Protein 1
Amino acid sequence: MPNLLVKPAGTLGLVHDITPQSAGWTYVGFGLHRLLAGEKTSGESADRETCLVLVSGKATVTVDGEDFGELGERMTPFEGLPFAVYVPKGSRWEAVATTALDLAVCSAPGAEGYKAQVIAPGRHPQMTRGKTTNTRYVTNIMPEDDNAAHSLLVVEVITPGGHTSSYPPHKHDEDNLPAESFLEETYYHRLNPSQGFAMQRVYTDDRSLDETMAVEDGDVTLVPKGYHPVAAIHGYDLYYLNVMAGPSRVWKFNNAKEHAWLFTGV
């Protein structure tokens, strides 16, 4: 199995390029472009659909020649809500940075019948989830109840320092609907201040997979299966962008039985 912790390759340009082949799985792809003002990047979606997320900064975005204008309003992922653009299969996209830009490229298998569109802030309002030190702030970008995509589920979460997230531990690694869905998942992590770190554990009931990782600013973690809780260290807020996809576009999870007593109210 590939290393579950993926470090960025440099500080500018394409710093992450995670494909189903490199991850050793079937569905999810994730890329991250870090551009200076005036630089541009582009891509072909081929047989995959894509969600471009402006993690920070501003850019002009076009899809198949359709100009969506300048998008973006936050300069860090910790201030405000995201802009995103959905790119259907068989399309070409281009983004030109008008400020320093972190652009996430989230992808999964596509299908016919979907249209390019901007997903503006406020389309899916930010939600507060959990209580006390399990409180975190969730913004759906492409949730399952939004019929804008064939496979992709995209969400971002801010977890305050000293809090847990993706907790109590849950998993979605069995294609057994309606009880549970199979979804591969990536986490793109950012820290504020950037010198901080957080902890993430990925493990299965039988412990055939059991890895605990110290994640730093800009790291990606892979979740091919199992439970995947996160802990933000005191003093450092954690942002992460999740990309999920599987055979069905449904997020149906099960909690670790030994921790089920924690679930009520958290």
Note: The chain has one domain: 5-262.
Protein 2
Amino acid sequence: MEGFAHQLVAGIATGGIYASVALALVMIYQATHHVNFAQGEMATFSTYLAWAAVQGGAPWWAALLGTVFASFAVGVAIERVLLRPMRSAPVLAVVCAFIGLMLIFNSITGAIFGYAVRPFPSPFETSAPLLGGLVSGHALGSTAVTLAVLALVWAFFRHTGLGLAMRAAAYNPVSARLVGIRVGWMLALGWGLAAAIGAVAGVMVAPVVFLEPNMMLGVLLYAFAGALLGGIDNPAGAVAGGFLVGVVENLAGAYLVGAELKLTLALAIIVGVLLLRPSGLFGRAVESRV
């Protein structure tokens, strides 16, 4: 029973990372109706920026804050420079642009920082596990940070004028323009916010998986499974799906399929959702006449 509780708590902690990346994916999807395949590589590059700042002597939390602002600026720049000119491009062209962006960030990260596996420091390390040995200090701290970020994002979109304008621009850009909302800039801010959230997720997961240019590939797959499971058009559902995937991954890896096949479980979730319930558990099934 203690082993089950440990896996459950660890799954919740891991699910918080997946929930953050899933939320970032949904934010981009709502704005563009495309999945940002480069989300993981952008988060990896941001994590390396934080690592470089820490190695340069910056306090850990100051390095995180600086990385979040830098990632936000990079996300805005990507939308303005690369994606805005492609607003009327075919779907395949946009997908190719996202894949190209993923490869570019992966190559730049490796070229600048190298491909060696590096340890990433955690500000939550303790000498002994917490909560009766169920969870490590980093797992508990990273979960708290993730929940705080998700709460701030929820409050921003629900209770601020800028957040409401971004939601309007994502849901109905035509009507948003009619009431004076600058839709182009709202989409750019959405990209920046998604990049910032991804940076936090990358920094939180790096002490667990270690830092290397491909560290977010598996995380992105689990996050995509969580976004689909919760509903790719529902931010709250994607967050719930991310936590659920984290719990299922840990429990299944420990008691069902083994650690070697856990990544296959994410693929099974993706295929199962697409076949049985494409709108996800909390998404909306959209019907249109043709």
Note: The longest helix spans residues 2-32.
Protein 3
Amino acid sequence: MSVEPFLDPGSPRTRFGAEMRRLREEAQLSQAAVAARLGCTQTQVSRLEAATRTPSRSDAERLDRFFGLEGATSFTRLYHRILAKPGSPAWFMSWTEEIEPNALVLRSWDPLLIPGLLQTEAYARHLFVNGPRAAPEEVEERVQARMQRQLILGRENSPLLLVLLDEGVLRRKVGSSEVMREQLSHLLETTQRPDVSIQVVDPECMAGLAGPFMIAKLPNGQPDTVHADSPVEGQVTDDPIYVASIWDRYEAIRQWAYPGHISMRKIEEVRREWT
């Protein structure tokens, strides 16, 4: 099954790739030739031009030097505009722009909160409003970024989303009782989709207490990539040792998950408790 990248044609990352391709073709250079000059692979050049890879600072600076743009520094300027994308920290962009939209399967474990891909707007807003030093304009940017992120679930080739959720999350009050009822109703509605599965995990499971994470299965034989969260800065990596460790933890948690029909019954029971 092929997956078309989910790209915004007006985004700085897409313009970065288009400008790179334009200058390369004007110079009558192949992608392999540019890769040789930049000290990277042809695949990396191809992904930059297709906007399926987020450029690094060194990518931008080398391209400005290579194409003689020291004065205009156009690639460096676009790189900074990519980093300035509202609502998402820079370290998370490689996940939300490259990994998540192109994944075939997303596996998620959340011991504390409803996962971002399944949060209602009211639930997400309460989380952001009550974050440390939350400025009103930043809250709205982050809420809208989260809602935008969820658009991948409405695509024709949406990823298969497999969610493991600690039972305590259903009873952790985020906002009002109305917010919680709406959120749990949303979970029940979402599971009617053939590409979404939610399993509630017995709260006695100890394997997941280290924190939330996601595992992405990517197309074309690309290695699995994981995102592990933390209060300061999450980690996105396809390092085989790290990925294997996360997979082991995921399987240990999954052994404590209730079957789908029991999970739905538990969500419904807790939803009725939020009165």
Note: Strands lie at 105-110, 160-166, 196-201, 213-217, 225-228, 235-237.
